[in-house]
Amino acid sequence: MNAEAEKVNLLSNLKPGDKVVVKAIDGGRRLRQKLYGIGIFRGRALTVIRGSKSHPYLVEVGGVKCVIGSGMTDKIIVE
Amino acid sequence: MNSYKIALAGNPNCGKTTIFNQLTGSRQRIGNWPGVTVEKKEGHVKFQEKDFYFVDLPGIYSLTADSEDEVVSRDYLLSNDADIILNVVDATNLERNLFLTTQLLEMNLPVILVLNMKDLAQKRHISIDVDHLKRHLGVEVLYVAGTDLSEVKEIFPAIVSSDRKPNSSFSVSYPNEIESVITKYIPSVVSLPEFNDNTSGRWSILKLLEKDPLFTKKAEKSKDFPYSEFVSDLSSVEKILKDPSDVVISDYRYGFVHGVSRDVQKMRSAKETFTDSIDRFVMNKFLGIPIFLGVMFLVFFVAIQIGGVFIDFFDIFMSTIFVDGLGSLLSNIGAPAWIKVLLADGIGSGLTTVATFIPVIFFMFLMLSILEDSGYMARAAFVMDRFMRWIGLPGKSFVPMLVGFGCTVPAILSTRTLEEKRDRMMTTFMVPLMSCGARLPVYALFANAFFKNHAGLIVFSIYFAGVMLAVLTGLLLKKTIFKGEVSHFVMELPPYHTPRMKHILLHTWMRLKTFIYRAGVVMIIAVSILSVLNSIKFEDKKVVFGAEQQGSSLLEYAGKAVTPVFTPMGIEKDNWPASVGFFTGVFAKEAVIATVDSLYSQIYASNELATLQEEEEFSFWGGIAEAFIAIPEGFAGLVGIGSDDSQQEGSNDLAARLQDNFTPASAYAYLLFILIYFPCIAAFVVAVKQLGRLYGWLMGFYLTSTAWAVSTLFFQIAEGHNWIWILVALAVLGLEFLIFYLIGKKSKLFKVEEID
Question: What is d(CA B204, CA B201) in angstroms, rounded to the nearest whole number?
């Protein structure tokens, strides 16, 4: 996952209104499972409502709105 | 069977608490799960001659992420203590909620599914085929609106008619590689007691495959489990599947859930909801922070101003009954003086002090419950995240800090909403520096006596000093004891809804009750001791009892003995009542005024040979009436009608005496000390619960030594100009830093498991 670090598109690069699909979670078991619980995982469609670099992101996923803390947004790879 | 034990499990915001409240009414008990600060709610109900014991498990999304809440829930579920698990599921968010359901069913637990929020789902045109869902999951499904009592009551017969048998045929099928590992290891775990589950091993092996820390540790320790072989099998499975096994397992669970919800649920595409339109403003880049500050101002205004209106009522009412009333009753029946001192002056006034806390705390809890229930709290964390992150905490920590301006006790309690232990502990360390409502009267008194024209500014500067110190403390902790990254957070934003008054009042009352009980017990003990000490007097080498006796009390000797410690911050030896004030302030910060006032009056009375104040004839009903009059007076004061007579009366003497004993610089130093030093006992007790005894005392020590150093620095720079004391104060601060640094180096306690 880290090999193509420059090419990957991270959630933290997105702008409000962007609609993307989650490609991978670049993190350990605990982070992954936290995101699974709330419904963010590979293959899920996600819409950015609010957010910018080094701020938390407000996203809509599966009909639920959630806040993803900055830092975590660098670990969600999207396409 | 006539008795059932039922556990409620479900996602946060699924309406679980509403259903719990509907089922149990106010017959609840809030406690803690053993060893952790996760709240445990229990309730008992009799329904048709049968006993129902409910346990509300913490709201969780899954059983795999190892948060404190999840561990508590999982351990409880594994213990098989409950006869039935009510799995509450939000019908408007079926797929995500069923993810947990799948795991409960995989554990082979006796589940009844309570599909909640029927009303909301219908409003959003979501229709669910309940029978179909029943067939898919193989368990009983009830479809209810949690707010509708008659529908919720259907749960009771469902519990009775269920035979507590789980659906043992339920399982999610995983890829062949994983299934073959499960099949291979089932014989190895079946006979091992440490893997005792309801699924003859399947669940335990799944947990091992998910690399669950608890199960992995068990497997490593077990002599009979072929752990190294398992690890190599696991890694070859991961190689074939090209993914960590926990990802594969979770993907398959979601795959199953997705299939089920697609089958049973029909929904139209969502339009912009009411929630979306509010969030447009509340979470706006520019409006977010002003709106947040406005909301917080409102919380404060209501708690401190409106709550403050009732303080006099409780003060006069309670002291009429328990201090003066009880006192004169005891005198009338001829009880010995020491009984009167202990019961009326000690415990009676202790109860009165606790009671004066009630209104502010009630309104504070009420406002916070409203904010929580309406869904705004989660938004506030979003808005404040950036600033808090700089100090080393997630945005959510801002909420307890704010509550701290009201009262430190609920503030520390509300750190429970934080997910990581590190964040909870760090926030608890910082909260006492948020100046609480009880300290305000002390500032006001001194500011009026010494800085008449700038009193407001002075009080504000003290609050500001507290906030600055909290920020510095945060930065210090981040660099020393509580190292590690700011925890990553994902947080669901629940949809807004109109606060449910019944639910909020119940919630507020449960919390208030806990507080009154806890504070009451501590206060009774503390105040009793103090008033006894003040009543034991030495006169002509004879010990006599009673505060009204001549001679020096034990308290005076003690006060004089400790005063030299405070001399560097400007407290002269004759000003020993000020030191006693610090002591009583530990029991309740506002007690400082009462202490200083009463001790000065005793000293001045004997020095000036002033005529003793004619003691007013005690009138019980007069006192009660006065208490009720205090409420409208309070409201009048709130809107600015009427004068502040009641506040000023008698305090002019006190102001003059303060001016005799303090200089402006030493007065300010005194206030700084009051701001920073040891939290009051009620707060300390909850802090110790949160931090553990070791770190609780460390916090007390840190706050007290910082208070001494800061006050001394201020006084010596402003007035004393004694460079030795300045150096000593700086050395104390340096020593604190060193101690924290060393603890940070040594301690492995707080190597917070990193989430990356």
Answer: 5
